Amino acid sequence: MENSNQFSTTETPPVNGSSYSSVGDPGNGNGFSKILVGASIGALLGGLVASLLTPETTTRFNQTIRNVGGTVKTTADSFNEAVQQLGTAVNSVADNIDGSTKDVNEAVNSVTTNVSDTVRSTVSTVRQTAEGVNATVKTVANAVNVVKAIANEVQQPPTQRIVNLPAAVPPPDKSNGETLYKLVPVNQEPQ
To answer: Does this model's pTM top 0.85?
Structure first.
């Protein structure tokens, strides 16, 4: 006798001339597998509905749904607040950068204006000094020219003047109380 718990390994002949055997893939249109899946889904939904019929399960289910909704709402509120804080921080940084940029711009303009004014003032002072120096040089040159002219006159030999003496001059050995002086040029030796 054979054990009834053993499976037969022989293939069963096709029924109604089809080549489909009962050992094939259950997902290939097998009606029984579809019924089995449908029954499983139905049993699952039925169990869920049956569990919701009891007040305690319904209360727990509702509380869980509320907790999930509350968590989502809290998360959304926190996210909204974080985005608002980030927006405020970015706005504050942008305002500070704008203010700093304006301050830097004003400082650069002030420095540029002061440097420009200083350069203009310095150039004006240098011009005035140059004009003063130029006038002084002209005055000194004129003074040098005057001194040169005087020096040239002094260097030229003096002209001899002929002095007419009166005819009644006593002889040199007789003096009449007057002294006669002879002019001698400075750059010539006396005779």
So the answer is: no
Name the residue type at position 145.
Answer: N
Q: How many CB atoms lie within 10 A of CB 120?
A: 10
Place of tokens 């001899």: 160
Q: From residue 96, how far is each of 90, 99, 100, 103 by CA, in Å?
A: 10, 5, 6, 10
pLDDT digits (tens, 9 = 90+) for 48-97: 777 767 778 778 877 887 888 888 888 888 888 888 998 999 988 888 88
Amino acid occupying residue 50: A
Confidence check: pLDDT of 124 > 70: yes
| 61 CB burial (10 A radius; 0-12, 13-18, 19+) | middle
Q: Are 26 and 33 in contact (CB under 8 A)?
A: yes
Q: Which pLDDT does position 172 carry in this prediction? A: 56
Per-residue confidence band for 1, with pLDDT thresholds at 50, 70 and 90? very low
User: What tokens were used for 186?
Assistant: 């400075």
Compute the residue count for the chain. 191
**Other beta carbons within 10 Å of 51:** 13
8 A C-beta contact, residue 157 and residue 185: yes
User: Measured between alpha carbons, how far is 56 from 68 in angstroms, rounded to an integer?
Assistant: 18
